[in-house]
Inverse folding.
């Protein structure tokens, strides 16, 4: 008994002129993007960037950049047991007297010495009572960076009163700033803190020595609220050190050229105005670094000499250090693998302080930082680029294997299926997963600090493309469905073009921007001063521990994109089905059944004969291709391809060219080969004949009978012998 098959289609029937449809556009975009655009972009990356030559994971010192970050996630800390009361803080501040500086040993001693013998004036005591009643936050102690700090935080007028009542020596320019902003809604902070100062040890030498000293500054908690107050001619000056034609700052270390100073000199000009890229406001003003000579603030340094504030009395203790120039602080933050991002910070620390409700007696400190940033040298891995190159090469080869004989939207769907299936998908996924697992912390660190190079961002885009593509392909292949799923294939292939463009665009748009949400959602900053930090951070002062590997994020994103592709495919099928029903609704009733049969074949194809029905009714009616090449009915391999599995050619029932190409076979010379063998046969054209003779590679092929259209039993031959076949692709034809 004959097995029912899908209706035959005569291949020589006259076809109307093809029109451009949505499927045609989709096929063109998929093929053009995968075979033309993607390889061209890969060649540009390989040829015009440092990717293959001197690519690095992070930007290095020559490429460092300057930026402002409000409440920077990398510089988050606190101070435990530091709410000592305003009286204690005022007693400590009063020990400065009217001196602008205090040495490090004396300053640190303030936090351990007894203050029983220190007293405040009547006005100071009254001010302390007012501060405590007014809710001023007074902090004094060692913060989590291990540095002693004393601050008064409150309304601008209260801060000004503290300076005047305690007779503190504060830089006139910052005092005028807070007086100008007296009606400001933000709190202002008076701070005494240790800072690093550099001083020259030899004439015309960049070899400067360093000393840590405590001095004062005043700043707003909200940096954008700082008024623009000029420092020029704000106070008179006098000559303190004649230099007789020599400029003490003619030669300086590079780190002294990064930030602006409060005195005029030959140092390179650095603007106070900084663009605030991540904030609702456009720009902010950074504080000016200090310079001291003899304990007095410097106003001018030139070839005539060093000029200081005219009402300051030189202290001989500080004269021994000569000209002292404030230097930035280098506070690296590292991964647990000891790869560090170096930050040269404006050491006039400005921070937001608030009570930490999660920890008793702790104040949280989030620093508004001005910094120049770069990272350690880490060589770039070429693995993602190599994997993408493998995928693109295989895509071109698959296109040749499928569309060498003819071109159609159906063959494009078959090409997409061939690209998305096979053993190579496992290899792609394993390679990229290994790279993401081992490099996850580095990518997180670079994104959180804005220090990834353009080559590293390209690598990340490669990783996302390969992982999402291969993982969804494997999920689809292992879903148990024996289907071509033609609508999904082209949709998924086309989506990759736009997903890749969007990913690259977004990654490059956040270059040199700190993605602080990565640290808040997925990271934990540990410092060496804590027990856990000491156990985790190795030799680093601070390190970031990331909770979730980047692979987890890639999995979630890939599944989401796969669901989008599946949804688009599903709704496309539904739309086409109902569109055909709408068009055919006006047809006569006798033609309606035939119309729905066409719809069923094109949108929801018939399932071919199953193995059970074949053997129950009798021996299977197989084509020679199914009998000798597949060993089973074509429907056993694909259950949704009944509409194009068979055709009638010269009066014989045949397997179509599309079915032959879909199952991985190809016409070459007078034989049918497995598609992967054709690649070796083409490669042989470029190699010497003696070369192929040395390899004992066996091919399996099937000879085509030109008269009957049948294929023979499988025949084996060597690579050398098969290369004697005709150097051309045979015309594709159905096989009976």
């Amino acid at each position: 008994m004959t097995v029912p098959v899908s209706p035959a289609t005569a291949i020589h029937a006259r076809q109307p002129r093809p029109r451009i449809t949505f499927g045609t556009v989709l096929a063109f975009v998929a093929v053009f993007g995968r075979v033309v655009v993607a390889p061209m972009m890969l060649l540009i990356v390989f040829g015009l960037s440092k990717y293959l030559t001197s690519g690095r994971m992070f930007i290095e010192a020559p490429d460092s950049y300057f930026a402002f970050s409000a409440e920077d996630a990398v510089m988050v800390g606190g101070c435990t047991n530091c709410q000592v009361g305003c009286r204690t803080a005022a007693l400590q501040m009063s020990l400065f007297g009217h001196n602008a500086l205090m040495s490090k040993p004396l300053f640190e001693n303030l936090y351990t010495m007894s203050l029983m013998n220190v007293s405040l004036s009547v006005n100071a005591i009254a001010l302390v009572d007012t501060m405590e009643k007014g809710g001023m936050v007074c902090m004094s102690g060692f913060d989590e960076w291990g540095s002693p700090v004393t601050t008064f935080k409150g309304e601008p007028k209260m801060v000004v009163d503290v300076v005047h009542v305690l007779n503190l020596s504060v830089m006139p320019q910052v005092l005028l700033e807070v007086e100008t902003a007296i009606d400001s809604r933000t709190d202002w902070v008076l701070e005494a803190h240790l800072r690093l100062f550099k001083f020259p040890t030899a004439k015309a030498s960049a070899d400067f020595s360093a000393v840590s000293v405590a001095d004062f500054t005043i700043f707003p908690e909200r940096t954008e609220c700082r008024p623009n107050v000029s420092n020029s001619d704000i106070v008179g000056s006098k000559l303190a050190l004649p230099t007789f034609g020599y400029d003490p700052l003619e030669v300086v270390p590079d780190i002294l050229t990064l930030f602006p100073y409060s005195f005029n000199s030959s140092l390179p000009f650095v603007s106070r105005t900084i663009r605030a890229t991540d904030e609702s406001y456009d720009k902010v003003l950074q504080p000016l670094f200090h310079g001291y000579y003899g304990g007095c603030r410097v106003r001018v340094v030139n070839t005539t000499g060093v000029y200081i504030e005219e009402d300051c009395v030189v202290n001989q203790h500080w004269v021994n250090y000569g000209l002292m120039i404030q230097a930035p602080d280098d506070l690296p933050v590292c991964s647990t693998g000891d790869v560090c991002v170096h930050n040269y910070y404006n050491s006039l620390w400005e921070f937001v302080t608030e009570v930490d409700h999660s920890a008793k007696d702790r104040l949280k400190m989030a620093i508004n930082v001005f910094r120049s940033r770069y990272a350690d040298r880490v060589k770039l891995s070429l693995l993602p680029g190599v994997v993408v190159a493998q995928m693109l090469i295989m895509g071109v080869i698959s296109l040749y294997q499928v569309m060498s004989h003819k071109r159609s939207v159906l063959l494009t769907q078959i090409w997409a299926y061939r690209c998305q299936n096979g053993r190579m998908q496992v290899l792609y996924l394993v390679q990229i997963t290994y790279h993401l697992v081992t490099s996850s912390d580095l990518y997180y660190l670079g994104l959180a600090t804005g220090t990834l190079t353009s080559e590293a961002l390209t690598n990340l885009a490669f990783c996302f493309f390969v992982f999402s593509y291969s993982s969804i392909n494997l999920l689809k292949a292992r879903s148990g469905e024996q289907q071509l799923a033609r609508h999904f294939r082209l949709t998924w292939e086309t989506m990759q073009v736009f997903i890749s463009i969007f990913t690259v665009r977004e990654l490059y748009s956040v270059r040199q921007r700190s993605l602080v949400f990565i640290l808040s959602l997925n990271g934990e900053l540990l410092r060496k001063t804590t027990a856990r930090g000491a156990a985790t951070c190795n030799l680093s002062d601070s390190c970031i521990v990331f909770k979730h590997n980047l692979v987890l994020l890639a999995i979630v994103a890939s599944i989401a994109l796969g669901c989008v592709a599946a949804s688009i495919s599903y709704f496309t099928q539904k739309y086409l089905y109902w569109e055909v029903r709408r068009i055919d609704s006006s047809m006569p009733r006798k033609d309606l059944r035939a119309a729905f049969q066409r719809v069923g074949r094109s949108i929801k194809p018939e399932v071919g004969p199953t193995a059970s029905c074949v053997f129950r009714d009798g021996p299977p009616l197989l084509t020679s291709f199914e009998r000798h090449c597949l060993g089973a009915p074509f429907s056993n391999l694909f259950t949704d391809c009944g509409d194009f599995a068979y055709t009638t050619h010269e009066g014989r029932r045949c397997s179509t060219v599309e079915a032959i190409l879909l199952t991985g076979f190809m016409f070459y010379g007078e034989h049918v080969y497995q598609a992967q063998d054709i690649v070796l046969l083409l490669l042989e054209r470029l190699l010497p004949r003696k070369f192929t003779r040395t390899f004992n590679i066996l091919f399996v092929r099937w000879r085509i009978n030109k008269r009957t259209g049948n294929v023979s039993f499988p025949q084996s031959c060597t690579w050398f012998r098969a290369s004697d076949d005709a150097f051309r692709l045979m015309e594709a034809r159905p096989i009976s």
Remarks:
- Confidence is low (pLDDT under 50) at residues 1-15, 599-618.
- Residues 62-375 form one domain.
- Residues 269 and 352 are 29 Å apart (CA to CA).
